[in-house]
Amino acid sequence: MNHYVFNPITLRYEVQKGSRTARVLRLVLSLAAAGALCWLYFWLYTSVFGFDLPKTARLKRENARWQARIQVMNRQLDLYEQTLSGIEERDDHVYRSIFGMNEVPREARNAGFGNPARYALLERQGADPALGRTMRRLDNLSKRTYVQSLALDEVHGIAINAGDMVSHIPAVPPVLPDKRKVHLSSPFGYRTDPVYGGRRFHSGQDFAADRGYPVYATGDGVVETVRFQLSGYGNEVVINHGFGYKTRYAHLHTTEVAPGMSIRRGDPVGTVGRSGKATGPHLHYEVLYKGDQVNPYGFMDMDMSVEEYQAMVGRRREESAQRRKSSMELMNRKRSAR
Q1: 262 with 319: CB under 8 angstroms?
Q2: Could you tell me the pTM of the whole model?
Q3: Residue 15 C-beta-side C-alpha neighbours within 13 Å
Q4: What is the DSSP string of 48-87?
Q5: In terms of CB atoms within 10 Å, which of 131, 219, 288, 325 comes out highest?
């Protein structure tokens, strides 16, 4: 800007040019004053009046919307988790208990969920911690849901064959209940050990009878073990009945089954003996449920008539003979076809 000064000699207003330094100084002062005014404006706008800058206000609105969505998702996850926990509880204590299946371990339901690197990436990117927690919950819920679906598939497979459950559970005495020839010599529970003395737990039921007295399977199943121990159980047979049940027949004189053989209630297992740690001929009979010995007396009716028991054994003998006959006929037809 030009500066005019009156010249008394020429009686005119003449342009007075300032120095370059003065002009630069005035420009710098002007810019500094403008900057100070701007800083004062922003300070009053943000600190005194508490207003947000437009970009900050927009980001805060966006963040509030996302926080609201995360809260809604967490409320839904609460509902889903509560529902899934109820299904897991019924599966462990109702469905699986009915069919003698073991509970699904809690470690298996919760193991291996989520990818730690995935959450670390969120943290490095500065994501809200609430988002990381929600993702962990979602991963955990997805894993538990998958495990539970597999568990229910397993229960479904067992339930398809549940009609056979009655015939598999041990439900009759392991010997012909003729009270003239057999009697209960030692019950389940604590007793004085007949060999070593002292109070010891007796894990089964003893049936005293003459050596060679027949022993029969008390339920349908598959022979799991046939072995001899010089002490202890002596000649021993273990049958796996499924649904969590097994039975043990010990101190046998002879065995008439082999591992892997399918067996039906009333099929012969062996004969009474005194092998192993035994003071006299008897059958040591155990019922195991999920690996624990339980009182066998609750699984049989010792008042069952001899005639009824003999009829059961007779039916099984006839069915076995018919099955062997059918097998022989089939083999003969195959040989003839050759």
Answers
A1: no
A2: 0.59
A3: 4
A4: IS-PPPHHHHHHHHHHHHHHHHHHHHHHHHHHHHHHHHHH
A5: 219
